[in-house]
Amino acid sequence: MKKLLVFALALLIALPLSANGKKKIRVACVGNSVTYGAGIQDREHDSYPAQLQRMLGEEYDVRNFGHSGTTLLFKGFRPYVKTDEYKAAIDFKADLVIIHLGLNDTDPRAWPDHREEFVGDYLALIDSFRVANPKAKIWICRMTPIFHDHKRFDSGTRDWHAQIQQAIEQTSRFAGVQLIDFYDPLHQHPEMFPDALHPNPAGARILATKVYGAITGWFGGLQLPELYGNGMVLQRNRPITLRGIADAGEKVKVVFDGQKQETKAALDGTWRVSFPPHNAGGPFTLSFATKSRKAEYNDVYVGEVWICSGQSNMEFRVDQANTTEQDVNDGKRLSLLHLYNMSPEVTTDNREWTLDEIAKVNRLDLLQKGLWASATDAEAVKKFSAVAYNFGRVLADSLQVPVGLICNAVGGTTTESWVSRTVLENKYSMILRNWLNNDHTQAWARGRAQLNLKRSERPEMQRHPYQPSYMFEAGILPLQKYDVQGVIWYQGESNADKPELHEKLFTLLEKSWRRYFHNRNMPFYTVQLSSLNRTHFPKFRQSQQQLADRLPNTYMVVTSDLGNPTDVHPRSKRPVGERLAAQALRHSYNYNIEDEGPKPANAEWENNYVRINFTHADGMTLTYGFELMGPDGRYHKAQAKVEGTAIIVSADGVKNPIAVRYAWEPYTTADLTNAQGFPASTFEMKRPLHSAKPQRHDRKTDVVSGASPQKK
Predict the structure, then answer these.
(1) Residue 141: how many CB atoms within 10 A of its CB?
(2) Which residues pair with 489 in a beta bridge?
(3) What's the whole-number mean pLDDT along residues 199-210?
């Protein structure tokens, strides 16, 4: 009798029952320290398996079989298959098995020597759970992130982590098991990883939610990007791709302009459909339907879509500009122009943030997800970017097609804040580390962020719009790869003290955006900083011009004639938008128009003057702005005379000039323009070092440092 009682008790433990008397579904969470809950103060309550148990309810029996520091590799320094947790997991004979291993295999004691064995070892581990319960359903997980502060991040961990992710994906295909993505949902949340490796309870909840969706197939039903709505504009002349979320396997029906597409949500809840390229037009109706929900949008248009990004001079509103009344009145006839304003809900003003604001920024909820509005709506126009609005105004009027503008500019944001984390991790990881105190981010930006975050208990773990990668995660990822024609960009004040660094960062920014939008040729139309009494501005303006000349599909408008000596926010924004539109019309829409001011092409150096030859030079005029350097190494005010498409520059007392420059003042009134009124950029040209003697008048030398080669 005693033996029978012991056997019955053991059976009850092994086969727990739910409240309704049914056998509970056994869930084994297999893994390393992340599964175990290392670093979580109350891991019994807040580890991801514990949170998963609460989500699934009493019909499930979720067990945590995590063991800290273990490797997937059987010949690793601490193989999971040799732990007591592995043996207990096998004995549990789980119905559902979730495996998250691989992080510790990034250790130099594991991956370098045994990488070729990883997939085979993983397949063997999966098979062992199938032997224990032939009916078991098994998932394996893409690893959680390892962040830049990890001590071995640059010495191998970053690269090996990426290689192991590929091996895990290969394993899922070979084994025929579903893959759960633990990486992407957490990679944008470094604040949830206090030690760069282990998620806190909030991060563990994201993991539990991912596993819950994989097990139940429930992802909240039909969900659409917040950018979708009445009045939206879709990009013309390319496949129209629409995407969203639904429950796993759920049928999604999409109807656009009478065309129908149907698909099923994947096991991870994602779905997408594509319609053939569509000519500009509208209004159309766009509808989405699943068994449980329908959504219909009216007044949907097809035309040209542009992203308008940057910092405060792009954010600067129509009602702050000096042409407010004119801009609003113009909008009354612009039914083709549609505006989507992602204005910041938390400003980076000179103040301490409240705890609620700190929490909102940490959640990446910085920007409003509003509604599409027509330019005929005066109030919407007043609150929209003045530069972006006037850019769109000219495009809509010139192209006579619907134009959609998405503005997500935020005052003070740094270039690095708009670069994707993946790109920075691989190309410039040092800028991510201790960003509030390192010298890679401008001192002003760091100081403002420290003030905003003063009430935070752990400022080093808090997010901020100036932080590297923050704006990409808060302002670009929410667009969910919405198809666009291109980008207009007005930013640089928060990086102007280090032009060389800015050149590197902006190059990375373009790379990350083009990769994200799957458009390697996506054009960027940029704005050169205006005139302002800051000593480093001339060098930065020249650097911006050189950068635009060098980078593919990148163009720049000059605004030095529109500046204010003491105000970083000049109110004259209408011409800026118009100049951007002229460049877009020429380079993106093939209009045969002039789009920029005079640009130096090459120089002829003589014994008492320099002759500079220009492009974009028809009708050049000027009264002031040039300086000439002699052998004394000093610049002297110079006289300049226009001769056709060239300018002759000389200065009293300067013989054998060795350098010439134009508009080289922080706030400049230099006025070199062409017949179309477009101003010339700040520039500097130096005589080639090999030129030992004064050159003949008919001998030309190449442009050297300070003037950029022209893109072809």
Answers:
(1) 26
(2) 309, 526
(3) 98
d(CA 267, CA 274) in angstroms, rounded, equals 19
Pair 348, 448: CB distance under 8 Å? yes
Owner of token pair 């700040």: 682
3-state class (DSSP) for residue 90? helix
| C-beta of residue 263 within 8 angstroms of C-beta of residue 273 | yes
What is the four-CA torsion angle of 616, 618, 622, 625, rounded to 10 degrees?
20
Of 472, 461, 469, the residue nearest 429 (C-alpha): 469
User: How many other C-beta atoms are found inside a 10 Å radius of the C-beta of residue 2?
Assistant: 6
In the chain, which segments carry CATH 3.40.50.1110? 16-216
**CB within 8 A of 447, min separation 6: which ones?**
none
Give the C-alpha separation, 438 to 404, whole Å. Answer: 39
pLDDT score at 692: 41
Which residue, 611, 609, 613, is CA-closest to 601? Answer: 613
Eight-class DSSP state of 156: I
Q: 391 is written with which tokens?
A: 């850019």
pLDDT at 101 over 80: yes
pLDDT digits 0-9 by tens, 624-661? 999 999 999 999 999 999 999 999 999 999 999 999 99
Q: Does domain 599-686 have CATH number 2.60.40?
A: yes
598, 673 in Cβ contact below 8 A?
yes
Q: Which strand (E) or helix (H) includes residue 250? A: none
Q: How far apart are CA 379 and CA 238, in angstroms?
A: 32
Helix 324-331 / helix 386-399 crossing angle, nearest 10 deg: 40
Provide the b/e sequence for 618-644 (b: ≥16 CB within 10 Å): eebebeebbbbbbeeeebbebebebee
Look at residue 22 in the predicted model and tell me its pLDDT. Answer: 82
44-47's contacts with Cβ under 8 Å and 24+ in sequence apart are: 46/201, 46/204, 47/204
Q: Please give the distance of CA 376 from its chain centroid, rounded to a whole number.
A: 31
The CATH number, out of the four listed (1.20.1740.10, 3.40.50.970, 3.40.50.1110, 3.10.20.600), of the domain defined by the range 16-216: 3.40.50.1110
Task: Record the tokens describing residue 347, joined without a space.
Answer: 């400003």
CATH 2.60.40: which residues of the chain?
599-686
Tokens of 380: 């919407």
697 pLDDT above the threshold of 90: no
In the prediction, which pLDDT does 249 show?
Answer: 97
> Which residues neighbour 166 within 8 Å (Cβ) at sequence distance 6 or greater?
none
Q: Which residue has the tokens 């220009």?
A: 614
Q: How confident is the model at residue 3 (pLDDT cuts 50, 70, 90)?
A: very low
| pLDDT tens string 508-535 | 999 999 999 999 999 999 999 999 999 9
Could you tell me if 585 and 398 are in contact, meaning their C-beta atoms sit under 8 angstroms apart?
yes
Q: Which residues contact 57 (CB under 8 A, 6 or more apart)?
A: none
Between CA 639 and CA 657 the distance in angstroms is: 13
Q: Which two tokens stand for residue 72?
A: 């997937």
Residue 509 confidence (pLDDT): 98
pTM of the prediction?
Answer: 0.94
